[in-house]
Structures
1.
Amino acid sequence: MIHLINKSGASVMLTERGAGVVSVVVPDRNGIMGDVVLGYRDEESYLADGPCAGKIPGRFANRIDGGRFVLDGKEHLLVRNNPGYQLHGGPDGFSNRLWKTAGISDTEAVLTLDSPDGDQGYPGNMHVEAVYTWRDDNSLTLSLKATTDAPTIVNLTNHTYWNLDGEDSGSVLGHTLKLNASRWLVTTDALIPTGELASVDGTPMDFRTAKPIGRDIKADFPALKYGKGYDNCWVLDGAPGLKLAAELSSAVSGRRLEVWTDQPAAQVYTGNWLDGSPVSKSGRSYHDYDGVAIECQGFPDAPNHPEFPSCVLRPGETYSRTIIFRLNA
């Protein structure tokens, strides 16, 4: 485990397994420290866990329809981990690998991974670097970089589950969420994008004004029935570059989380299938809706939708993305 601590004593714990976030301990409105990240009691539980808790999935986060894509006229068949698609880079994706610690200090950790040509079906040898920086303002910056020696695709994110009242406090459906997004990606019942970018106007997908996560989660709306809650991707508003994507808050603890990114989209997953997950740090199993993941990323299934922002990485280029989790109370 890797331990980062700032001047106030707030801390972050990381694991080399999936370059994952194990804990984030920050004060509530009364100055009482608490761990606001879902995680497991045993480090071994992070291997091949269904929730992908805290980790960096890849090479391609989210879904690729049919487990296939065409690049420069050549079809590539990926290793599927679901009948109709590949999810989070396949059964042995980046989230299940042991990354290497290339550098560490009290407030920063550099983790690297080398993915060989043909890995899970992806072309090209890829080198990946994840830099976590924990600052005195209780912001955790994740800088993601990747290079390749052959044309390939890449989509990296972080899959941390947040509960601002504490990882052992139960449901997050009372948390308030705001998304700076006026469009979302319509999907099939398998959560594969159809290609349509729909307006959130007049739908349960509208978080432009902050509202409780649970307010509309049981609405009679196809997307919410497909995933038993929110498991959808929103197109972030604003020009390219670093911007505020999401704001999460809890009236109980007074904690607030801002999520900043230069990624074009954010997948919000409300922990709809957390029942049966490995034993938690507090000694019990998590239940559905005990945490929410805000996964800043490229568009799901982008390789099969030329109209989506490109996820292609070529030799001589560097994939570079930033996600910032800023906490306060």
2.
Amino acid sequence: MYKGSFINTYIFIFMMTLALTSCSEQSLPGSAVSKQAHANLGAYAAAISVDGRYSVVSSANQGVLLWDNHDQISRFQWYHTQNQQNLVHSVALSFDNQVAVTATDTEFALWDTQTGKNLGYYQVSKSTIRDIAVSNQGRYVLYGRADNIVVFVDLWEGRRLEFMGHSEKINSIALSPNGYFALTGGNDYSAYFWDTRSGQVLHRFNHPSRVTKVALDPEGRFAFTADSMKKASIWQLTTGDLVSQLQYIARQKIFSAVTFNQAGTLLATGTPNRMLTLWDVQSGEKVAIWQVEPREGSRPKSAVVFATAFVDNDTALISESSNGMLERFEREITP
């Protein structure tokens, strides 16, 4: 009797220790300190400017909205079709905040963020658009297609380049602010960093499963690539060397938003299951973690984090999610 009680007590203590250890490793997520509704019935896609000033939100019932986050006002409302049906699933903002790009499966449009005027509609005759990006001044547009091809277009001179390095469909792309360099990832387990002026591959980053998310540091220092299982890496762009791998214990982790801070010391990521996480670039260690609000009416309670940006000298993050809200998260700074 005594022996059995001892064993049961030991098992209980072991299980409690394991649970506490798991909690300490995961850390409890924080919540937003402020929220603002940007899409009444939720969003299909969103982007935030690097400085956090603007958000572009593809809404479920209000077309595409350009929000001024400083003044907390919706500046413009855009539609691709006259019947005001919104099929926009990919959006992006130029680094200089001058131009926004919006894309459906078969066309993309450019918009002047200062006047709200449309700068042109462009049809895609082959396959469908999977992801899109735009350079400063809206001169260059990059988009990835479902037929394995990445297209780079110089809208000012009419030059077009098709990058055919991938052997399976494209999942994620990124473009440098000046439009000279691209990072693309696909189902072929590879991400390519390449020169858009020549199509030459500068670095190839290999993964053990399909590459689902890529991002570029706007300052040209780092690249981020992540696959569908457990590998999320930060690379040095000049050499192609590995800087760090994000440290987490989940067997599978998908990223839906990635942003480097201006100093190149921190990385913010968002996921399809509401998580917003801050990482140390050099070590890959987790710095802080939060959860965005679940989308109203979702069962189970969920929300996809579409975009995030650093604000107030990196003391806070803002996010846009499928919940249709701009949320602000703050972290404690150790002296």
3.
Amino acid sequence: MRICAIHQPQFMPWLGYLDKIRRADVFVFLDNVQFKKNEFQNRNRILVQGVSQWLTVPVRFAFGDTLREVRLPEDTRWKKKMWQTVSQHYTKAPFFKEYAEGFRDFLFRDWPDLAACNQASVEWLMACFGIDTERVTCSELPSFTEERTGRLVEICRHLNADTYLSGAGAREYLALRAFEEAGVRVIFQAFRHPVYPQLSPIKNAPFVPFLSALDALFNCGGGFLNLYSTNPS
């Protein structure tokens, strides 16, 4: 069995995104799809004073631009502000010092577009969490159909994958018959968000889930994901 997972590159994504990658044999960065404002393509959340807060990459785009066409500003003040925010609120986290330099090195690099920035953020997190799944960038592959399910099927077949690992939320729109007709089995991710020790200035603060994986990395270290074994269905 060869499992393929496919997803748009997100900025510093959550643990479930990384869990999907580590359960696949090959992961495809779907970098040539349309940018969607106010989603997770150019932002994610961290914990600030015990409250979820957005960490945003400013972008320049026109309606209809793909992730590869979205540009980042040349002015680097946003990078300095992001670094200050992250370092200020995680400096006392148990593993911040171990990973702070790597995060800062990533942040202050120059990126040609949002897709490249996001993919690099994912690959840095993969390295931190010890995930060595093969990865492929969709724009470097042959052209595929624009139809949503058909494109996924064609990518799987091109990569010789007989199984597609999908997020649970895709049950509502995937045309499963198209996979069946192509001889590709579909399994759905069953990730259950773990609760872990979370740095907060608020005494007995409730756990805040669905943050960027930066939160788990700085609080629990790179071996954290290996402690949890949720399985696709």
4.
Amino acid sequence: MKLDDRIAIVTGAASGIGLATAQRLAEAGATVMLGDIDDARGEQAAADLRAAGLRADYAHCDVTSDASVAAFRDAALQRHGRVDIIANVAGWGKIQPFLENDDAFIAKVVELNFMGPLRIVRAFLPQMIERKQGKIVNVSSDAGRVGSLGETVYSGAKGGVIAFTKGLARETARHGITANCVCPGPTDTPLLQAVPEKHREAFQRAIPMKRFAKPSEIADAVVFFASGRSDYITGQVLSVSGGLSMVG
């Protein structure tokens, strides 16, 4: 899958699935602008990609802030002139019973996982519509398809991303823009490592393939939706979960 001459942005790109996505997009030929709130790791990630002969740069992006997202958009358009691919990867969650979720926790989960992708798309979509082309890939979660014990608000926010993607696909198809959604199952990321060991073991036992996903395996699905091989696919949801979720 070749993405030569394509400009991509990736949120949450300093680590985990976001970093793997930035790397895979760059390896496919795209120029990638990484966005994250961790400037030190984001700058280092972009530098590492450049050291490998790939095209990448970095700018700060806090998806919970309208002003930060606007500044990220302005930086991307000033440096590269356009954006062809949006990869919304930034997200966060924590296992906690619903009745223990306080207002601050709920707000953080919703702002990062639902409002974040919405802000990014709203910021970049006008120039895509003007150019009559674009690829939008939102990373949700299988929690948003089937629910997840101890992640009730997270499941709701990720379910919102799925519905948002489908509505967006209907609105943007006439402009030559596709919008699709990748739903990871449990993936070997720093976020998963913060989950208590008993929960990780239960997740792994439930996965038919008996292992967690690699971040690069999620990134491969993102690259497919970002490439020309998915030009006639929009509004779709792809689970990458080792068979954990088999949704009809």
